[in-house]
Every structure is written in structure tokens, then in C-alpha cells.
User: Fold this.
Amino acid sequence: MTAVRPPTIIDVARRAGVSKSAVSRAFTGGSVSEDTRERVLKAASELRYRPSHSARSLKTNRSRLIGLAVTHLDNQFYPEVIEKFSGRLACDGCRVVLFVTRGEAGLEPMIDELLGFGLDGVILASSSHAAEVAAECTRAAMPVIMFNNVDTSGRLPGVCTDNELGAAIVADHLIGLGHSSIAIIEGVPDSSTSRERVTAFRERMLKAGLPDPVLRSGDYSSQGAAQATRELLMAEAPPTAIFCANDHMALAAIETCHELGKAPGRDVSIAGFDDVGIAAWPSFSLTTYKQPVAAMVDACVEGLFAEIAGERMIGETLRLPGELVVRSSTGKN
Amino acid sequence: MTAVRPPTIIDVARRAGVSKSAVSRAFTGGSVSEDTRERVLKAASELRYRPSHSARSLKTNRSRLIGLAVTHLDNQFYPEVIEKFSGRLACDGCRVVLFVTRGEAGLEPMIDELLGFGLDGVILASSSHAAEVAAECTRAAMPVIMFNNVDTSGRLPGVCTDNELGAAIVADHLIGLGHSSIAIIEGVPDSSTSRERVTAFRERMLKAGLPDPVLRSGDYSSQGAAQATRELLMAEAPPTAIFCANDHMALAAIETCHELGKAPGRDVSIAGFDDVGIAAWPSFSLTTYKQPVAAMVDACVEGLFAEIAGERMIGETLRLPGELVVRSSTGKN
DNA sequence: GGCGAACGTGCAATCGTTCCCAAAATTTGT
DNA sequence: ACAAATTTTGGGAACGATTGCACGTTCGCC
Assistant:
């Protein structure tokens, strides 16, 4: 019993009685007569032939593989994003290669890998070290686009929610409910996303003549947000509302409220940003600003494909509007 | 300005003043003198050379790409699994290519893709259609292993939690708390995982002299589980405890309890299976059987690598013990 | 100092495709 | 029915690496 070598294009050609060019054309949609096409397809299926991916991409310089760099998946938002990307890219025959960035290190150490897997393009949904990555990728002529985060150096194109708009709308919502003492729990400080949300929220408050909100870092983590919430609510004059830079932290904040015996939406209002799946669950019923994930993913893929096709699109960041979703975690003061 | 073609091994060879064989050996760890190695590495880094992935895998028949087929990621368990796999495989220089199976269709329609991307191996963490996939993969000589699910045809190796042990332990726990009227919410019926858990749970109850539990299908979905919970709890003689075939459904069951004004752990006990991250959150505090995900992933990767290395391992399913985690969603009857 | 062993090197074949090119076959027009 | 236009076909050169083989070197050792 010899290990059967998988059939090659030549085996198919022989069996179909044509040249390998014909077989190639039959598979890639080149011009072939109906007759040969049939014969080729028949021979191929009899032999269980499948074109070799590596040979093909060696010749064409296309792998139909797209890298997706994301941070720790315990933030519910990312699984949703991954699923959407996977589905969207599948429509164009592409697949997602995952790069989960180790929390602290960011994705800098995996740049080499990112560039070494023959990907057609890369989507950076990870927050940190965008600048270095940007530089390295453009040097390697690798198409890149950012998702839910902008490259502050302005060299990479990207797609994100209009964070400033969203944060302003959340601010208006809380202010409209009569809150004036509002705290903010931000994410990691060097993330553009967090910064934009925080800044816009603050500005809106100041513009409404309210005091500058207390700012705490939640580091985009549950523990961080829980700790921040604890500190805020146990202070002498606790805020009546807290705006968290994302749902992941807002949910932790709600948990912490319960722990402290405060009812979210009554004793203290909590608002988030993202609208992850479980935000809608009755236990949380989180008021939040919904990111238009589907539209963002579509735009992102489109942009990346344009880059891959050779269209230069430098530094343009597309900002899509989301939608305020009011639930019961916020209420009148 | 001409589009600069990425440097090839030949460019490096020329610049370093050696043959391409030497360059290749310097990169793949072949035998080269210290002197040449240095010259090659220097030339390579000056040119920003990276070996072409496709050329390399064409020659070596190895892509260092592993396919991972999973179902909808809204079940919290899978993101955790994905992250673990990604991390574990990265240790061996491999990357995960994602195949998210569209709910209804299962992964049957994507078999061709699964086999067409030049993967070194495939991990099936998706529940359905294992048999067809198994057949097709072995025919294509593609190493495959199942995760958290067993191939009933017994042809594919796999790794999963000892579901029967786990379910029995959960049953004992509930019985020990004095429950005798216990209902079960199962997943999709043709999933081995659900079947094993349900069967073992039932057996344990019968063995304890308790009545055969009511069985409802939750279809592994939130909505399904919520509906089932509603029906169970609004019945004439509602059960005092509910065992859900996974946490995803158990969490939905808890939500539904709140909706119906019943306190989990007091009015009705809820137990799950998996121990996903949020099960530990105070809002849920779900009693559950923890799957040893890290160990499972390790074993799974090891098994797959063995297959890739050519060691035949047919149909062996490894079942690892987990651990009961008691929280407050279950209580005395 | 001479003789193997050990090591480092380059040549050339090879992996399985795609695609250009010229030739052959077919269709079309008159 | 013949020439021109069109379509289909096969040969063969890439694509960018790895690797078996044979040939020099270098070195150690008696």
C-alpha cells in the first residue's frame, strides 16, 4: 500500500485527453469549449482532483487569505466582528486567518508572522501599536486596513463608528435625564477609539455647562472597570451616571453595582458603547450606542479589496453613524 | 516609480555573494558556516526579504495553516476555544484559518473549501455532519480531529470532555440538594455532546430511583432554551431544577427565570455545562461542569500533529474529566 | 605529511499551477 | 467554396522556494 499522492493537473489532463492548459482554463473560467469543459470536470471529479492552493497562489500572487488581528476575545464585541468578517469574506471566496494579540504585547511582535503567511491583506481590529505595524506593512506592500480604530499617523485607511457623534449622543441622553454628575470609565488611553469617545463626551458636558467629569481608566478590562466602578461609587459624592467606553466595561460596571447594592438605572445610570449581544439581556438591559457592525465590515472589506486591487487609498478613515439604544440601565436622576 | 517587486531568495543570494541554496539553508536551519549565515541574514534584512509562503509550501507540502470549523460564535464557549487554539498553535508556528458554519447548513457545504485551502489539518469543533466530512477528508488524506464532539461513525479521532461523567456529577449534585423533579433542556438532538450529557444525566436519576426527567429541546440556542424554560416553569407541576446541556442555554434559562419572577437557586435550580466566562459573573453565578479547555486543546493539537506526522490514529476519542463548579444558581429544594 | 572524515557549497531538478504565444480548429461573411 | 475573423488548443517558460547529489575545503590524527 503506497501512499497515494494527490492527483495533479497533469493526471486530470491525461485522463481527459487534453493538455494541462485546458484543465487550468476549465477551472479558472478561461475560454474552453463546452465539450472539453465537461470532459475535464468529469475526469477531475473521478480523480477527486483539487487545484493545489500553494501552486496556484505562487503563480497568481493571491492566496484568498485575509489576516484578522484582534485582541482578547473575552470582549463580546470581537466574536461578533469575527463572525461577520468571516461570513462577508466567504462571499468572495476568502478566508480569515486569525491573529489573536496577546494582551500586553500587542501585535508588534507578530508583525513578521502577519507578513510571512502570504496573506492578501490584513485587517487590524487590534488597538495597539498601529503605527509600527503600519510602517512595516506599507514597506512590505501589504494591503492593510484598520477596523474600529484609527491610525493616528494617518497613513492607514480604516473604518470605524463615528465615536464622537456616538459619545455626544450618549452624553445628551444622560444629560437629558437630568444627570449632571457623570463619571467616565475609559479604555486603554492610547486607543484612538477610547480617546475619541471620552473627548467628545467631555466636550458635550462642558458645552452643557456641566462640571468636567471624573475620569477613571478601566483598561478595557472587566477587572479594571469593576475596580473603577467601585472607587467611583464608594466615593464621598458618587456620580449619578457612568459612561463606559465600551459595553464590556459597562457590563462589569453593572455587575459591580449589584455587588454594592445599587440598582442600575435607578440608583446610578450606566451607559456603554457597542451594543454587544448580551447588552440586551434583561439582566443587564444596557443603554448603549450601537455600532453598525455589518455596515462597518462591509465597508472595511470593500476598502481592503480596493487596496488589493491596487487602488491607492491613503489614510482615509470612514466613520459610520451608529444608533442610540435606550434600555433600562439609564434612568432619570 | 515602478512597483517594487518583493525580493526573492535570488536577490538575497546575489547580494550576499552566495548561492540560493545557502540562503535557503540559512533560513531553514540547514548546515551553513557562521560566516555565510551572517552575510545572508544581513543581506536579507537589508532587502527586507521574507521567504514566500506559497513557494515554500508548494515544495514542502506544509502550510502551517490549520483549519478550525466552529458554529455560531454567540455561544461564549467557542470564542474561548478559538483563542486557546490560536495561542496553542502559534507556539508551533501555526495559524488558525476560520470556518464559521452557517447555522442551519452545517459544514457540509464548505467541505470543498476546507480541503481547498492547502491546510495542514482541520479541527472540527462544529457539531453537525461529521460523518460526511469525515469520509471526504480521509479520502483527501487530510488530517482531521474532532473537538468537543465525537464522530459517531468512529472513524475520526477526537477530544472531548467526559460528558457522561460530568452529567452524572451534575445529577448527583442536584439530587444531593434534594431535587427529585428535574427537567433537562437538550441541545440539537443529533449532537453527540448533547446526547451523551442527557443520557448520562437521565441514567443517574433513574438509578437514584427518581422519575424520568422531562426533556425539552433548546436547540443549543438562547431563544430555544428560553422558550423551553418558559414552558417548563409555567406547567402545572414545574420542575424544581433544570439541567441545561450547555451554559449558553443555562444562561438563557436564568434570564427567563427572572422574566417569570422566579429566583434561580431558590425557586428553581439551574445547572449548565461548560463554565464559560460569564457563568461566574454575580448576575448569573451559574453552577456548571467546567470543561478542561486548555487540556483539551493541548491534547487536540497534539493528536492532530501526530496525524500530520503520519501516525495513524483511527477513531480514538480522548475523554478528559472536568470539574464541577458550584455556584448559587443551584440550591436546596 | 598524507589520508579520511566531516563539513560547507553550488548545481540542477522539482513542486503544481498560470498564462503567453503560436498553431490549429472552427465559425463567419461573401 | 474560400478567405478572414474568431475561438480553442497545447507547449513551455515562469513563479520562488527546497533538497539530493557531487564536489571542494578544512581539519584531525596517526
